[in-house]
Amino acid sequence: MARLLRAGVPATEALRTLVAAVRGDRGGLRQALLALLDRSAAGETLAGAMERFPGIFAATDVAVLRAAEQVGQPAQGFESISTRLEVALAVNQGLRAAVRLPLFLAAGSILTGPLPNLLLHPEASYLRQVRGPLIELLVVALVLLRGVPGLWRFFGASALAASLSRLFYPVLWRLPLLGGVYLSHLRGMFCRVLSRNLSHGLTPQQALDLAVATCADPVARARRDVIVQGVRAGRDLPTMLVKAGLADPDDLVLLCASERAGLLDVALMTAAERSAGRMRHGISRVRFLFNLALAAALLLVIGRGAWHMYQSTIQSMEQTLRNVVDGGTQASQIDTLLRMIEEWVPILTPNR
């Protein structure tokens, strides 16, 4: 939509093009586009028409487009929305990949865990031992991969979610590791959108408003007024961005020098790429710590199984010895006992 509008195509013609490009009715998108086409032809703004379909167009995206339409830049509004959706999709895919790995390892440990016990007790039922844990793991996987995103979409637009977000995001900004990853993600998206807004001719005030609205972060919205007041008081924009936490302090020199050279939009895109690199590095650290904890948990489970097998073997040997002492043991059982002693004697204690 942004590319069509920027090429000079009227909004109604752009919507007709999109309707023709949609194959089938994916989640009601085609019907929503047809309704947007009708309301746009009737003179309603695109943001007002999109607001009638909260299941498809998020309230944040509607607010971004409304702000862009007020300054006569709907194409830039759609481009900002596209940037936010692309970043959100990449983060979503990364989170799903991070969740799938421990689920796969947990399933493997459940399937292989009963094997040592089966070697000692062949009469035990393998399916009975793995069925319950596998069902529990399946429930956890469905909750993580389907339930949590579904609840987020259901409650995301509610007043309760807005109240909780005002409490949650300030805490997230201060977390030592996860907070750093989130701030890198936020700064990268903010700088990228702000750079594109400035490169397309928007004033700094308009570009800043659209970038803050795109981030959908209540802390960033609250600090937007601090940035505006500082710029009006004669402070340069990069300094105020760093002071507000929307740009990394390591990029301050680059941004200040580029602003004096008239290349602030280029420097902001460079800062966005740097923030993306910091986010990837932070995610790698989080994943390493998570995998380390998972490996420790798996070793604990394996060690517990080995210890259980050791205890079962010792008990079986003791029972056979008692039978020998009682005189009720056949020669074949004594041979079995001797083989077990030969296998386990290196790790048995001297008194055993």
Structure in words:
By secondary structure, this protein is mostly helical. It is 79% helix and 0% strand. The chain is built from 16 helices and no strands. The protein has helices at residues 2-6, 11-21, 29-41, 46-50, 59-70, 74-112, 115-120, 126-155, 159-174, 178-199, 204-215, 218-232, 237-243, 252-260, 264-326, 331-344. It is elongated, with a radius of gyration of 31 Å. The N and C termini lie far apart (79 Å).
Overview in brief:
This protein is mainly α.
- The poorly predicted ranges are none
Secondary-structure content class:
mainly alpha
Strand residue content: under 5%
Strand count, sense and barrel status of the largest sheet are: none
**Count of helical regions:** 16
Average pLDDT metric? 81
Radius of gyration: 31 Å
Using DSSP, what is the number of strands? 0
SSE blueprint:
Layout lengths: L1 H5 L4 H11 L7 H13 L4 H5 L8 H12 L3 H39 L2 H6 L5 H30 L3 H16 L3 H22 L4 H12 L2 H15 L4 H7 L8 H9 L3 H63 L4 H14 L8
Helix pairs in contact: 2-3, 5-6, 5-11, 6-8, 6-10, 6-11, 6-15, 9-10, 10-11, 10-15, 11-12, 12-13, 13-14, 14-15, 15-16
Features:
352 residues; mainly alpha
